[in-house]
Amino acid sequence: MAMMPDGPDEARRESTALADANDARDRAKETLVPAIGMGVAPLAALGGAAPVALDLSGARSRGISEQVVGIVLWTCGAISLLTTVGIIVVLVQQALVFFAQVPVTDFLFGTTWTALFKTPLYGVLPLVSGTLMITLIAMLVSIPLGLMSAIYLSEYAPVRVRDILKPALELLAGIPTIVYGFFAVTFIRPDVLKPIFPGIGPFSALAAGIAVGILTIPLVASLSEDAMQAVPRALREGGYALGATRLEVAWQIVVPAAFSGIIASFILAMSRAIGETMIVALAAGSKPQLTANPLEAMQTMTGFIIQAFSGDMVVGTAPYLSLFAVGLLLFFITLALNMMSHWVVGKYREVYE
Amino acid sequence: MSLRTALGPSALGMTQTEEPSNLAGRNTKASVVRKVLFLATAFAILALGALIWDVTTSGARWLSLDLLTNTASRKPEQAGLRPALLGTLWVIGLTALFAFPVGIGAAVYLEEYAPNNRWTRLLKTNIANLAGVPSVVYGLLGLGVFVSMFSLGRTVVSGALTMALLILPVIIIASQEAIRAVPSSLRQAAFALGATRWQVARDHVLPAAMPGILTGIILSISRAIGETAPLLVVGAAAYVTFNPSGITSKYTVLPVQIYEWARRPQQDFQDLAAAAIVVLLVLLLVLNATAIYFRQRFSRQVKW
Fold first, then answer.
1. How far apart are CA B211 and CA B299, in angstroms?
2. DSSP 3-state assignment of B150?
3. In chain A, at which end, N or C, are there fewer CB atoms within 10 A of the end residue's CB?
4. Helix, strand or coil for residue A352?
5. Chain segment B124-173, per-residue pLDDT in tens
């Protein structure tokens, strides 16, 4: 319906209006009973046919209110576009002011981030490496577990088990991230990781990464499962008919057929992990450093933004402006990943009749 | 028999007679993998269980009516959530006021009005991408536009406007799906009776799509209630001892209060944070249960 072109519709509307008017006039003439509802009674009573020019059917006001409503609804749609424009304008504008004070190359390739110190250095690499480390750990948790859950739910689980597990996964997805952050600090680190790695500090990339991983499991699981459910039944039955076991059907037929959707779910989970804020703000610490040791404290791009706002922040100063430069980088990375996931789905989707 | 000739006369015969059947091994493998897959799925549920156990055992000591009625305090025994709960109510109420009409309007435009052209495709791509923008970036947007440019300051209204933009894509996408599920025969019947486009949308499509839209709305609200990062950026205050008095009042919200407590090193405040998390989770559970109730109740009434 939404695709209906405007042209014919416009014509239809006008012809309806005409029909209304003619109809009303005819009835008034025939019966001489005042057609009060039509608004033509006084004219008919005067003995003349209602002048054609005087259209009292309400079609015109209907047309105008239609147009007004159309414009209002169009504006609602445009607001969403304005949001994107707003994000880009605000981030770029403030980042440009920042880059007038700090050269772009120092920002992108510097290896020390001490924005909130007395002698600030703005090399974003430690924040980027912290973000990548936590994202990597999260993906190591959520990709295998999410994909296995999706295969189980889509191909194995009996209906009754599925009816319990799926809502439970959705529940997991609905828990606020601040709660996961608290969970990482008060449970994952002391009760799970400390016995295995006695040297782990109070804040660590590992604890934060695992929590982000658990957070993204439902995302991978539900998007991958949707992709697998979309694989036609005939493909599975063909596999069974050739004597394949359930595992062979799942792994060699369904997963390859749903591959584009599965990859898209991985990319979206990655983008989500990169943008995740409250878990890392609580569990990863606030020490930006270039290190490959996941047991140490790190700071991510998002973690820095939150840390900066937990203290006093003077508008217009370099540390304040650096937030927007970091935000811009974050925005572009996640935007690129999101667009990539849409592209993967569009480009590599297997189409079945 | 073309298969037989293609493979050569002996190919099929060989697999049948000379190679031993591997079916038993394959079946064992399949059943082992089945158990592994089940365990992987169960892991997420176990994590959920551990999380709930963790917060309830830590927070149990502080869970009382005093927690709900007291204000923020330096002393853990006197600390409570009243300003945070009222702040959440103010911010979310206002967010809903801004976001619902615009979100549903945009969905109606995209599904019922928009012609299939480049502008519409741009809008749709844009909404999909907006849904993936990290929430903290919305915070920076709100800081730049509402707090600074419009000079609204660090108030309830700038927080609510920021939050409204954040949940807008969620509402639009959910409403679009609900509207798309309304059969087109309903629209055609209304058009055939001379209804205008808006009459069709208002009197027929929207009522039929309402359960789906309501579900999406409630889910977006529960997302907004749990969001912390954007409100920290647009300036929910850390230490609030008074009730928010209006839309230009300073404020704090439940998750920001949790963050402030969880950040403190003292065990008592950590446990207070856990208690506040229990309150937050119960609130979200009630909302989600309502969403499920709506979905069940209305989907039973409408039959196509």
1. 7
2. coil
3. C
4. coil
5. 999 989 989 999 999 999 999 998 888 888 889 999 999 999 999 999 99
Cα–Cα distance for residue pair A2/B110, rounded to 1 Å? 7
Average pLDDT in chain A: 83
Distance between CA atoms of B158 and B248, rounded to whole angstroms? 9
Chain B nearest-CA distance from A266, in A, is 13
- For B159, how many CA atoms within 13 A lie in the half-sphere containing its CB? 32
Task: Give CA–CA dist A176/B8, Å, rounded.
Answer: 63
Report yes or no: B81 and B254 within 8 Å, Cβ to Cβ. Answer: yes
Chain B residues in contact with A77 (beta carbon < 8 A): 105-106, 109-110, 114, 123
Instruction: State the burial class of residue A168 (Cβ atoms within 10 Å of its Cβ: 0-12, 13-18, 19+).
Output: middle
ipTM of the complex: 0.86
Would you tell me the crossing angle of helices A59-101 and B118-130 to the nearest 10 degrees? Answer: 50
Q: Do A299 and A287 form a contact (C-beta atoms < 8 A)?
A: yes
pLDDT tens-digit map of B205-242: 999 998 889 888 988 999 999 999 999 999 777 677 77
Minimal CA–CA distance to A70: which of A148, A136, A9?
Answer: A9
Q: Which of B26, B36, B148 sits opposite A245 (nearest CB)?
A: B26
Q: How far is CA B272 from CA A352, B62, B67, B75, in A?
A: 55, 6, 9, 11
Q: Does the pLDDT value for residue A42 go beyond 50? A: no
- The answer to whether the Cβ–Cβ distance between A183 and B51 falls below 8 Å is yes
As given in the structure block, the two tokens for residue B176 are 């679009």
User: Could you tell me which of A81, A174, A41 has the C-alpha nearest to residue B125?
Assistant: A81
Burial tier of A67 (Cβ tally within 10 Å: 0-12, 13-18, 19+): exposed
* Cβ neighbours around A125 below 10 Å, total: 16
Q: Which residue of A has its CA nearest to B30?
A: A247
Burial of B2 (0-12, 13-18, 19+ CB in 10 A): exposed
Contact between residue B230 and residue B162 where contact means Cβ atoms under 8 Å apart: yes
Q: What's at B105, amino acid-wise? A: G
Q: Are B160 and B94 in contact (CB under 8 A)?
A: yes
Contacts of residue A313 in chain B, CB cutoff 8 Å?
Answer: none
Confidence of residue B17 (pLDDT cuts 50, 70, 90): low
Secondary structure letter of residue A242 according to DSSP: T
Range B234-251 average pLDDT? 79
CA angle A90, B237, B149 (to 5 degrees): 25
Of A111-120, A206-215, A250-259, B287-296, which gets the smallest average pLDDT? B287-296
Q: Are A143 and A266 in contact (CB under 8 A)?
A: yes
Block residue for tokens 């304005």: A82
Q: What does each C-alpha distance from A156 to A49, A228, A241, B36, B114 come to in angstroms?
A: 75, 12, 18, 11, 42
At A258, is the secondary structure helix, strand, or coil? coil
Q: In chain A, where do the E strands start and end?
A: none
Which residues of B are less than 8 Å from A16 in CB distance?
Answer: 194
Rounded (10°) CA dihedral B222, B143, A79, B214: 10
Residue B164 tokens read as: 């409204």
DSSP state of B245: -
CA–CA separation, B120 and A77 (whole Å): 9
DSSP annotation string for B166-204: HHHHHHHHHHHHHHHTS-HHHHHHHHHTT--HHHHIIII
- The amino acid occupying position B153 is G
Q: How far is CA B275 from the centre of its chain?
A: 22
